[in-house]
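Re: the request from the purification team.
They wanted to know what the chain is likely to look like in 3D before they choose a buffer screen. I agreed to run a prediction and write the result into the notebook, where they can find it.
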Amino acid sequence: MKTDDFDYELPESLIAQTPLEKRDASRLLVLDKNSGEMKHDHFNNIIDYLKEGDVLCLNNTKVIPARLHGIKESTNAHIELLLLKEKEGDIWECLTRPAKRVKVGSIINFGDGLLKAECVEEKEEGIRVFKLHYQGILYEILDRLGEMPLPPYIHAKLKDKDRYQTVYAKYEGSAAAPTAGLHFTNELLKQIKDKGIDIVYVTLHVGLGTFRPVNVEDVTKHKMHSEFYMMSKETACTLNKAKEEHRRIISVGTTSVRTLETIMSLYGTFKECSGWTDIFIYPGYNFKAIDCLITNFHLPKSTLVMLVSALAGKENILNAYKEAVNEKYRFFSFGDSMFITNDICK
């Protein structure tokens, strides 16, 4: 299976640079994963494609202002850090630019000493491990010094940083937003719940995998970076009951998919747990947890295109992406949405 098999043509003009004024005003492409049939709609009508008894699973991770610009104390060189994941108390793995200037013992100063990062380990692919030194509460300091870590294909300035958070974001720790959830409003979630659809939450802190392209020719040789996940007892019980009663489990976003499939693969059931996952889902994968998926449109040749191709079939996905390009849908993080379903009837 070749990485190039998951490529498609995308005009740069279709890459969304800013969010729409209204979260749920985005367009919605509904794709039947079995037949390949498609419908065009708007996200505020997503409820029409959901059924009483469905379970909607959302990722309630919260993005931290993880991009920091500082000065290397010994040389005054400008260094950028992107906090990826906390390994233990104040020890963070960071994507570092330029990494070649940062060695073990290097100290990076942010905000005139409000925060200092001491390099304690050098890793590959621009990764360095830092011990953070500060007084007070780290997340309050990051709010003062950090920037929201928007993907590199977004060049416009984000006016309201809350637009890179879901309305249900709760647990801090992500270096990127679970973007499929950006389309939901509190009002829409209430309508969904009132229809008799269960809403549950998992947590997966989005890390380096979001920023790393697939650089190998053979898909199976790609190595995913691990990300931290959590599932509560309440969520596990609701999902297990849905499985027993053959009701649909609908994942909101690929991060929720990876969490649910990881837990089901490990335990054969849903259970209260936490851990690290590097699950890589590509065509040939046998889904054990989810039935349907609400997602955005993903980068060519990315692990996320491979994941949705595993669920709906590569031909169906590439046809849907071609249709979205022809219809001038908006792509990627601030773009439009897709519902991959097993029942397209509205």
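For the purification team: The CA atoms of residues 40 and 275 lie 38 Å apart.
Please add any questions underneath this entry.
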